[in-house]
Amino acid sequence: MRTNIALLAGFLGLASALPTDAESVEKRQTVPTIYLCGDSTTAKGGGGSGTEGWGQFLQYSFSTSKAKVDNRAIGGRSARSYTREGRFDTVAGLVKSGDWVVIEFGHNDGGSLTPTDNGRTDCFGDGAQTCSTTYNGVAETVLTYPAYLKNAAKKFNAAGAKA
Fold first, then answer.
1. Which of 31, 39, 40, 45 makes a 20 to 30 Å CA pair with 53?
2. Per 3-state DSSP, what percentage of the chain is helix, strand, and coil (rounded to 5)?
3. Main-chain dihedrals φ then ψ at residue 141, nearest 5 degrees
């Protein structure tokens, strides 16, 4: 009789340790998201040449119970154009504590602001330097590549994500 009571108590203890339906839903909602911000080398459809960026395949490296991947990369973008288009701000509004953001640019960030600004080129420098240009008839202060990345990372980190 004592053995039966001990077994029953053990099973009840185990059952109480199992997640309830509400806990299961909460756990699914807390699975971290890995956001990808980048150019064609990360983007779905790559740059339109029939290739795919690596970001499309990252989802296959994670169990959906461990992490999900949200690929926000867009072909032809630079850190500057991604910033100007508000795409970093959009992702910053989505991230939650525990999420990750992978920022991958550089492919389109080089070049010259003169004679014609392509809207993607960053100011040359290693941090605080700025350049002035006119893009599409609008005066723009252009930052350096590291400055765009640091500014984006600060936004994500402030929201609790890791960049």
1. 31
2. 35, 20, 45
3. -90, 120
- pTM listed for this prediction: 0.80
Name the one residue in this structure whose structure tokens are 């032809």.
Answer: 76
- Determine the distance from the C-alpha atom of residue 51 to the mean position of all C-alpha atoms in its chain, rounded to a whole number: 21
Phi and psi, residue 9, nearest 5°: -65, -40
Q: What distances in angstroms separate CA 139 from CA 22, 80, 81, 84, 132, one per listed residue?
A: 53, 14, 14, 12, 7
pLDDT digits (tens, 9 = 90+) for 34-91: 999 999 999 998 777 778 899 999 999 999 999 999 999 999 999 999 999 999 999 9
Nearest to 84 by CA among 46, 35, 124, 118: 118
Q: Which domains does the chain have, with CATH numbers?
A: 24-158 (3.40.50.1110)
What are the φ/ψ torsions at residue 34 (nearest 5 degrees)?
-105, 110
Alpha-carbon distance 60 to 83, whole Å?
A: 28
